[in-house]
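Section 5.1 Outputs to date
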Amino acid sequence: MQQTPHVIERTIDVMDWLLSVEDVAARATLQQIATKYRRTAWILSFTGVANEPRVRRQAWSLSRWGWNVVVAGFAGHSSTPPDWTYLQLADCPRSRSFAFRGAMLLQRQAGRLLYQYGKRVPCLASTGARLSYFGLPNWRQNHREILRIAEATPALRGDLVIAHDFHTCPPAAALARLWDVPFMVDCHEYGRGQYMDNPDWVRDGRLFASALQDDYLARASAVTTVCDGIRDLLNQEQKLKRPVVTVRSMPLSQPQPFRPAGDTLTVLYHGILSRDRGLQALVTSLPLWQPRFRLVLRGNGETEVIANLWRVAAELGVTHRLRIEPPVEFDQIIPAANAADIGYFVQDDYSPQKRFALPNKLFEYVMAGLALCVADLPEMASLVRQYNLGQLVPHCEPQTIAETINALSRSDIDRYKRASVAAASVLNWETEQRRLLDLVNSLVPERLA
């Protein structure tokens, strides 16, 4: 590990030197040699990868530091970067036969029996979880397609496979076996406790997620996650080859100008518009806000969730103070946020998943130069206090939300905005990526001497 910084510096020196060679033919030959010795990483995510921040940033860092990067995932609303080799996954056709769908259902039911009744027997639970996993048509198809492409394309042979959450662990582990290389798992969430507000998930999905995670995290060469709270839980609960590494979800440095608060103050929430993000309580608090404040919700969400937010706003007579907007292109998230004044995220603390939340949006608000108004939960509160970024909301209740927002004077907001502009020079991906690069270089030493 002590040699890692020198390895990284040497990679940059070699690539810069190649670009400086003036003889075109010589440069082409040298680039072919360098490409032969470049390491290749496969990144797997069952999300819209073009707008999945952790996928984008991992790929950016690895590519910049001399890796070939293959990304497999679904299409997103943003364009894919040109330095990716992109494998676009697709949903399983609905036209599959009744017999196929029936067989998949029976397989899932058989798997469920095993992981439910074998939860005290790890090998039985993991067998049931895998059986159920491959009874899900989409995951089954995507697993097979990833393996088919890998076997049919020797030029894309990987040196490292990165699975995003437990959903992609089976294909990642299969690729690692195929090539005899390490695989690592990046846990965006606390898989054992992700949907604790959903009784069906607590009764069944939690067992499924736990059995898969117990199986594959124990096999992984390394595990990363988004914050120290989830890191500590994983270290306590999982059998691991090495301790979990925290790699926080910070954006690339994209400094924004300080914009003083005006007469009208905009509170911004951007991200997924879902039931479990405390957004109904936020909209319900709007009538209690002082007239100088407006609310913008920006992001994708289920149609019924968005319709319900508009219904609540209409019943309370505050639709004129609310805007709900679609998400912007990935590269425009920070500049678009800079037009607001306060970055908001408050949710209830009813599970470790919620308690240790440290989302992309918090760091994006900082990079955008906003004052923060976020939940008084350990991970977020620690950063807000350390850098004096804004105010903490103790409970996700309309009255408490409104009191916290109304207490923010324009001078307070400007002070917190200036603190965010200053903190952005530290809380950025260029700084945080060192944790990732140190880890992957310890797993796959550089081949280019």
